[in-house]
Design brief:
The structure is a single chain. The chain is globular and about 40 Å long. With about 100 residues, the chain is mainly alpha-helical. It contains four helices and no strands. The protein has one domain. Helix 1 packs antiparallel against helix 2 and helix 3 runs antiparallel to helix 4.
């Protein structure tokens, strides 16, 4: 597995979660936020930022980890904040451990 594969899996799950939040709860904010954060991550996975792509990906995923972690700590609801906290943490670790292809 490479960092790009980890990023694409994270992207797919994040956008699917935003879409699910929109369809089940009518949350436009979930859909817009998931797509807004997916765009820089997709560009980083594609290498658009050149040598800074890894840094951009790590910063965005790190921000999402802190955001969802705080949301989970405040609300104690596993879905979606808890799951996204775990998913973000795993993805961030993979981004530091794996090498880009």
């Amino acid at each position: 597995m490479t960092t790009n594969v980890a990023l694409w899996i994270y992207l797919a799950l994040m956008v699917a979660g935003g879409l699910m939040g929109f369809l089940k709860a009518g949350s436009k904010a979930s859909l817009i936020a998931s797509v807004a954060f997916a765009v820089p991550l997709a560009l980083a996975a594609l290498g658009v930022f050149g040598g800074a792509s890894a840094l951009v990906a790590r910063c965005v995923v790190g921000f999402l980890l802190v955001f969802f972690g705080a949301k989970f700590a405040k609300g104690r609801k596993f879905m979606p904040a808890g799951m996204m906290t775990i998913l973000s943490a795993v993805t961030l670790v993979l981004l530091f451990v794996l090498r880009a292809a």
